[in-house]
Design a protein that fits this description.
This protein has one domain: GMP Synthetase, Chain A, domain 3. Strand 1 and strand 2 form a beta hairpin. It has four helices and three strands; from the N terminus they run αββααβα. Helix 1 packs across helix 3. The protein starts with 5 loop residues before the first helix and ends with a helix. The protein is of the alpha+beta class and 130 residues long. 56% of the residues lie in helices and 17% in strands.
């Protein structure tokens, strides 16, 4: 199976959907934030390993607690994946914090700030030239 094949994409999306559902409805660990989302999943071509990228809305301690809770629950999540998805191998899960959403929000705020300053500068220049 090639890295970017259709089968690989389908496996990734199915695993992502199931893990997100498990985190949302099955795991009762209080350390895991309710504002946790699975942003991306990379399953290796041999189906033995899986990197699960998660995003957590909250402060730094809630991010750390969520990662710790997910690492602790990885065995349970893996066993539930084995029951829900029919794969030759059930991948070993590694949870990785993904800050791309925060970075995107930060960049969007910077762009908005620059745009509003630019609009204000044009408005001030327009009023002064009359």
């Amino acid at each position: 199976m090639r890295k970017n094949s259709v089968k690989s994409s389908r496996v990734n999306s199915e695993v992502q959907r199931e893990i997100a559902e498990l985190i949302r409805s099955e795991i009762k660990d209080p350390r895991i934030s309710p504002m946790t989302s699975v942003t991306k999943v990379d399953v290796t071509t041999d189906l033995k390993y899986c990197k699960v990228y998660i995003s957590v809305f909250g402060d730094e301690s809630s991010k750390d607690d969520t990662l710790a809770g997910l690492k602790k629950a990885s065995g349970f999540i893996r066993s539930q994946l084995a029951k829900r998805i029919n794969l030759r191998n059930t991948p070993e899960l590694t949870f990785i914090y993904d800050d791309s959403m925060e970075y995107g929000m930060y960049m969007s705020n910077l762009i908005d700030k620059v745009a509003s300053e630019d609009a204000k500068a044009h408005k001030d220049n327009g009023e002064n030239s009359d």
